[in-house]
Write the C-alpha cells for this entry.
Amino acid sequence: MVASRRNGTLYTGSTDSLLIRAAQHKSKRFPGFTARHGVDLLVWFERHPTRDAAFRRERQIKKWNRAWKLRLIEENNPDWKDLAEEIRLGDLRDAQDWTPLAEDLDPRLRGDERGD
C-alpha cells in the first residue's frame, strides 16, 4: 500500500518486484492515479506465496473501508515511514522477517471485522 502522506491518499496494488515498483511510483514513471495524486510512500506490504494469492489479497483490501486500511498501516507502521527507503537503507535487514504472510495477521487485519 502506498500513500501520499500520513493519513493522505492511499493506493493498494500488487507486484512481483516491490522495490522496482516503489521506484516507479517515486519517479511517476506511469501516468495515472498514483502519479496524479503524489502517492509514492510505501507504507505497508505483505508477502504472499503466489501471484494469485497476492492479487486476491489486493482485491480484498481495495474493498475495505478507509478506517480498516488506516488501522492496518498504523498498527504496523505507526510513524508512516517510507518502507522502500527503510529496505534500501538496510533498516529492515530482512524484509521477509519484518512483514508477515497475510495468513499470519490478526483476523481483523485480514478483512474480518468481527475477528473470527
